[in-house]
Each structure stands twice: as structure tokens, then as C-alpha cells.
Amino acid sequence: MPSCSECGRKVMLAYRCRYCGEGFCEEHRLPERHQCPGIEAAKEEARIGRARAGDRRGDFGAWVDSASSTRFYLEGHVFEKTLSGDIQIDNGRFSRDEAREIAEMLSSDNPFLKLNATLAIWAKNGTIYVGLLVAAVILLAVVIVILKV
Ligand SMILES: [Zn+2]
Ligand SMILES: [Zn+2]
Fold first, then answer.
1. 32 and 3 in a common domain
2. How would you write the pLDDT of the chain (149 residues) with one tens digit per residue?
3. Distance from the alpha carbon of residue 75 to the mean position of ligand 2, in angstroms
4. Residue 69: inside a domain, yes or no?
5. How far is the CA of 39 from the centre of ligand 2 (A)?
6. CA-CA distance, 35 to 6, in Å (whole number)?
7. Which residue from 116, 110, 117 is spatially nearest to 50, judged by alpha carbons?
8. What is the pTM of this model?
9. How far is the CA of 50 from the centre of ligand 2 (A)?
């Protein structure tokens, strides 16, 4: 059984720190919780991530408020202004406020918020049903693979 490099506790599954490569228990898995030689790199990465998310939010706000009619790309989604003043995201139409909220969620570092934003876009698009179908097929494939092993 692997053990935590910080406290030595035996664990079923060690979390591998991606900055120093050592294995840790749940409690010590974050770089700031163990004597991680990569702590500065981890902090820098977090700082850059936050700055980038802030930039993306700022960019979107500037684009919405500007008279520009160019497209805006965010996290693989296309934002476009419509003549009525709504915002078209991919193939779904949203009010400005909704679009702002979705852009905010897409810019977030939280994967659940990102997923929610993507689902909201899909729901408007009608692609959510296609998405669910794809998810069901993948799930079925996974189940088949597991059963064979
Ligand atoms: Zn530990
Ligand atoms: Zn570490």
C-alpha cells in the first residue's frame, strides 16, 4: 500500500502532486500542505490562471459594450451580436445579461461552472439532446468495457 510522503500514513490511493511528483494522503495532497519544492511554481500558476480569467472577463465586457460587430471567441464558443441587441452564442440566442453571466462562468477556473455554462448554451441550441445521447453512448461503452475486464 502506498504511503503519504509527508506524514507516512498508509493510503489506499496516493494523490500524486503534479509539482514534485510525490504521493500524498488526502490531507497533504496540495503543494501548500507538504514541503513541496514546486510550491513557487504552483503559486505562480494559480496567479497566472486568476489573471487570465480576469482578463477574459474584462475582454468580454469591453466587447459587449463596444459597437464592434466582430465575433468574440471564448472557451471554444462563438459569441455574436444580433441586430436586436441580443447575443448569439453558438446557435442559441441569449439576452445581454445572460450572455454576460455565461461568459463569466466560462472564464471561471471552476470546471463545474464551465460545464454549467456549456450546458446552458447547449440547452438553448437544442444540442443538449445530442449531448445527452452522446453521453449515454459513452456510458454504455464504458459499461461494456468494464464488464469485459
Ligand atoms: Zn499525509
Ligand atoms: Zn508537491
1. yes
2. 899 999 999 999 899 999 999 999 999 999 999 999 998 988 888 888 888 877 877 888 889 888 888 999 998 999 999 988 899 999 889 999 999 999 999 988 888 889 889 988 888 877 666 667 778 888 888 888 888 76
3. 29
4. yes
5. 7
6. 8
7. 110
8. 0.54
9. 21
